[in-house]
Amino acid sequence: MTSPAVRPTPYQLRTPRLLLRCVSPSDAEARKEAFDSSGTHLDHLFPPPPEGRLTLDAHAAILRRYRGSFDLDQDRFYGAFDPTTGKLLGETGVLRRAGIRALELSYWLRRDAVGQGYAVEMARAMMKVAFVFDQATRMDLTCDVANTQSAGVAHRLGFTLEGRLRDRQLAPHHKRGDILCFTLLDTEYAKEPAHHLPIEAFDLLGRRID
Fold it and tell me: Does the predicted TM-score (pTM) go above 0.85?
């Protein structure tokens, strides 16, 4: 049995309110500004180092790893930008740690972008990437048990709570503890609003992907 053919990897996506594109070290200054202006808002996702806030070089190093991972078709991270001002609102992406033909949804928003529907719009774009371009059969969304906002986003997106995973740490920069795991299947995706999200996708060379 052969696997379904996947489409070219989208390097840039345009949704009604966002420009989502592959991040690179040149975005380090914008990323640092987003973190620094958010105060402690992102500390539960990215605990600051003992010496304080991440330096510009540290952000550049992170983005260099992200870009390398993206180009190798491993974890793929997109910067979420305001298409008018160029302001970095957050990041989103699809992670490979969920298993075969499965992807995990990842996202964060700067403090002043929360509560405006951007998280749902970013997530719906990644759902389309996962189920249409990558031909995944399942998408996971995990969050800390105390993160009621992310749990609310998961429910709004149509994900089903599969359970509480005890004593987990999915990434080195995460705090160890219990997490909630939500899942959406490809057979369920067609029934969700994400299926109808107007989106334009472009490949590495800027060519439109149909």
Answer: yes
